[in-house]
Amino acid sequence: MLIHEIIKNQLKNVVEKEISAVVKLCETIDDSWSKTVLIIRDCKGKVVVSGVGKSGNICQKIAASFTSTGMPSIFIHPTEASHGDLGLLESRDVLITLSASGQTTELLDIVQYASRLKVPIIIVTKNPTSSLAHFADIVLQIPDFPEAGINGLAPTTSTTCQLVLGDALAIAVMSLRGFTSENFKEIHPGGNLGARLVPVKNMMYVDDRMPLIDLSASIKEAIIEMNSKSLGCVGIINHRNQYVGIFTDGDLRRSLEAEVSLEEPVSQHMTPSPLSISPDLTMSELLIFFKEKGVPNVFVVKDKIPIGIIHIHQLASISSMNAT
What we know:
Elements: H1 2-27, H2 31-41, E1 47-50, H3 53-68, E2 73-75, H4 78-81, E3 94-98, H5 108-116, E4 121-125, E5 138-141, H6 157-176, H7 181-187, H8 191-196, E6 212-214, H9 219-229, E7 233-237, E8 243-248, H10 249-257, E9 271-272, E10 276-277, H11 283-293, E11 297-302, E12 305-311, H12 316-323
Parallel strand pairs: 1-2, 1-3, 3-4, 4-5, 6-7, 10-11
Antiparallel strand pairs: 7-8, 8-9, 11-12
C-alpha cells in the first residue's frame, strides 16, 4: 500500500500548488483586469488569442469560451501568423497573447504587426518587464509560482492561472454585454447545453394528453381520467377552466384507506392551491424544481389556465447530462 500513499501525496502536492497559484492570482486582480474587460466589451471586431506550446492550448480554450458566450474570437498560431495568417488580424480586433516568460520569440511578429495596426494588445505573463510586455497596452500578470512538477519545468501552475484568467475575462465580458440564457441557447442548439435551455413549453404534454376533470367530478371519474393519461395525477379545473387543484396517486390511496365512497366529489379530497410552473421555465430550471419540491409531475399554467403538464420521466436525459 506504500506506493498508493506516495502517489496520493504527489497528486495532493500538485493540486495544492495549483490552488495556491490561483489564490494568488485572485489577489492580483486590479484595474488592469477591468480595463481589459472594457476593451474587449467595446471591441467592434473579434478577439484574437495567440500563444505557443501549452500556452497555445490554453489560448484555444479561451478563444472558444469567448465565442460561445457571444464574443467572436479565434486562435492564431504565431508560427502560422508569420506565414500569412497575420491577414486575419484587423484594426478593429483585440489581441491577447499568452507567454509565461514574456520572451516567446514566436509571438514577436504578430505583436509587432498588431502594434502597427494600433490593435489593443493584452499580454498575459509572469514577467511585466519582458520584451513582449514592451508592446502591450495592458499587462495582466500571473503569479510567478514554481511549476508543480518535480523539476519545475512542465507548465502546470502557469497554464492553470492562464485558464482561470481567461475564464474570468470571458464571463465578465459576457455579463457586461448582456448575454442571456436565451442568447446562449441560440448559439448552442445542440448537445447537452442546448437541451438544458429548452423551455418547458416545447416538451410538455398538451391538449388531450393532459389529465383534467371538472371541479364537480367524482373520485371515480378522477380515477378513470388518471388511468387514461397514465401520469399519476389529474388536474382539477373550475367553470372558468382555471387550475384549482390536483388529485394524485397519493390522494387516491389515502381516500381508499379511509374507505371514502368513489362517488364523493373529488374536490373534497384534492390538494388545493397546487404547484404550477411557467411555460418559459427551462428544462434545467425544471430539474431543480423537481429536486426541491419532491413531486413527480407539475402542470404548466398561464394566466391561471393549465396549458400543459410535464412528468419527471421526461427529464431523464437532462438529469444524466447534469451528472456528467
